[in-house]
Amino acid sequence: MSQERAVPASAVPLEELSSWPEELCRRELPSVLPRLLSLSQHSDSWIEHVQILKIIVEMFLPHMNHLTLEQTFFSQVLPKTVKLFDDMVYELTSQARGLSSQNLEIQTTLRNILQTMVQLLGALTGCVQHVCATQESIILENIQSLPSSVLHVIKSTFVHCKNSESVYSGRLHLVSDLLQALFKEAYSLQKQLMELLDMVCMDPSVDENDDILNMVIVIHSLLDICSVISSMDHAFHANTWKFIIKQSLKHQSIIKSQLKHKDIITSLCEDILFSFHSCLHLAEQMTQSDAQDNADYRLFQKTLKLCRFFANSLLHYTKEFLPFLSDSCCNLHQLYLQIHSKFPPSLYATRISKAHQEEIAGAFLVTLDPLISQLLTFQPFVQVVLDSRLDLPCELQFPQCLLLVVVMDKLPFQSKEVQTLWCTDSQASETTTRISLLKAIFYSFEQCSGELSLPVHLQGLKSKGKAEVAVTLYQHVCVHLCTFITSFHPSLFAELDAALLNAVLSANMITSLLAMDAWCFLARYGTAELCAHHVTIVAHLIKSCPGECYQLINLSILLKRLFFFMAPPHQLEFIHKFSPKEAENLPLWQHISFQALPAELRKQTVHEVSTVGTAECRKWLSSSRTLGELESLNTVLSALLTICNSAGEALDTGKQTAIMEVVSQLWAFLNIKQIADQPYIQQTFSLLLPLLGFFIQTLDPKLIVQVVTLQTSLLKLEPPDYVRLAMLDFVSSLGKLFIPEAIQDRILPNLSCIFALLLADRSWLLEQHTLEAFTQFAETGFVDETEAAKVERVKQEKGIFWECFANVTVEEAKRSPLQPYAKRARQEFPWEEEYRSALHTIAGALEATESLLQKGPAPAWLLMEMEALHERMDKLKRYIHTLG
Q1: Widest CA span of the chain, in angstroms?
Q2: Are 502 and 443 contacting, i.e. CB atoms less than 8 angstroms apart?
Q3: How high is the pLDDT of residue 559?
Q4: Which residue of 117, 650, 817, 870 pairs with 606 in a disulfide if CB–CB is 3.0 to 4.6 A?
């Protein structure tokens, strides 16, 4: 015993120190600790360093002054500990490629390193536990080296475990037990460290000190760990995030200016997207699988719960740190777009069942709505969403449109200042320009051509007593836009007018139509005076248009629609302001439907327009008839055509005769070469054809022959599409006329040629209109068809249809539906059908003649023609008797 006491405590072997009693350790601490610290600093052996660390932690740490731990222990040992740990990780990675079941030396070396690492983590856990056990409130400055060192070691451990499959390749099983132990030890150490950090107390009155910086470093180190463990342990990943958010909020007042908010928001957004995509992938797998796997569904629910957790974390963080998130708005914007681009009804969505859609929407997507509400008042977010330079890929255009509609729905509940922020243009700098919300909606809507043409369907609005129905994107945007208009702040009406007008003038038809629908709603919802004001503005715009253009077409359609919503007194004011008695106003009246006027006012206006119109036509006929004057003549003809189309019944016989006379005279000046070469004459030709069609029943048969013959010749010269459409309009009007026998041989062959040429046209639009015109023409004789005759005809058609259906062969049934069907083969004994068809035509012609006699006096030649027909009938009767 005397010899043992003679040995100085500082010279006792390490193995003996491990067995010292607690009292001896406490007493000899001042002499032993410097020696141990010196040994650790000069030791190059991992095993020896870990052994020294364990001795200090287990035997002497409990007796140290907790206020001086940083100076006496942590700052002197932990930097070297971290370096040695990194060396061990490097050695593992370097030697792992040589690992094999045959190479026992490398296998032993690697396993020894891993065991040493596990022990080192255990020693660090002891340090953290001691601090937690001895202090109720912890000041970071007193343990400054501990959290940063521990977090570095934890991250390195998780990274190594995460990469273990690639590091150890196919030999992972030789060390998997120790890797698992290493992961568990790091997991336990992090949990213990988070408990310690939760006990940290910081002085909110201090703006700048080392504690603030240290806490920021701790939070961002944990953020780095989150990115490593996200795919390793979902529960641990979520708990780490929960701790990050908790600490950020706990010390918010002190660290808010130092935190790297963009990094936190970016990581949260990435984790939300990753878990969301995982959720969609699982839902897609379950949709494709016939059998219901409960394990898959439980995993789906677990992943969906994780989605919701991350979204709520983002929501909470955004709420508390919004003023510091200027540079994160782009990430938040993209997050919303990316999520909705992968979710139905997006064209780029993952295909999942309706049940899974509802589950994801109810648990996760609902959290995005309050997120947008929080960002609504934040100017940088407004700038990002409405940036004039925003250039989104195709798959994000539809989500952008949905986002703008969501914003539009929320604005009525915001202050005037917020509404102004969203609804006005702004230029912050030469390179930064913000467009208004309404302009952005129309622009975004225009980009959704695929979704509009399909169309995609969205959840409709609920109304009392009615079930919710799916609506198209057009309906969705239109309804929400009109609802928004009802709450528009009066001070922003100028912005509304400008946005609607800009969209009406758009070259995109569907966008222009949406703006017109919204404008018509505004006309109905607003005051009668507002409607009248808008009609006047549009009328002046039309009159100021320099010539034919798509903007003029759009404005004319809008004027026609708005005119129906005008109050009669305002319509009368409009007539006084833009008098139809003046030729200069005919460019306006050609675009107004006279049906919008009350009966008496309609009759008066029709009389005035037709009077001025026919007078202008006669004026042109008596002038030099230059091409330059054709533009004004075409305007006159367009106004007359508008009368015929919308208020033909208001034309008295005198006016009808006057119009028909000038139209016939104008036709006489046309020749095929002029029509083929001159655009203005082509337009005149296209206006005269429907006017002639309107008076088809009273036209001179010779003129009809001239019109049809000219059309046949002109078609061979390939005129513009609008000219061909005008031809179809006239041809279809012939279906209202029983063509006299005297001119059939000159009309029918030309009609066949016209239909053949138009049906051969490559334009699907012309082909469709040709088929419609052919159908109308084929209904000749049915114009004044009696009800009984109609029933008989339908019965015959039905019989023929079923007979056709019964004769379909097996080969025809197998034929591709994309191939046109061959004509039905002629029946062996078709005579009865053909006789019935011929008699039906005769009966129809007689009924048409009878109808004409009731409308007006018969021409002189009619009686002679009827007598000739009667003689032919008698001749046929005699022939039938001879056959019998």
Answers
A1: 160
A2: no
A3: 96
A4: 650
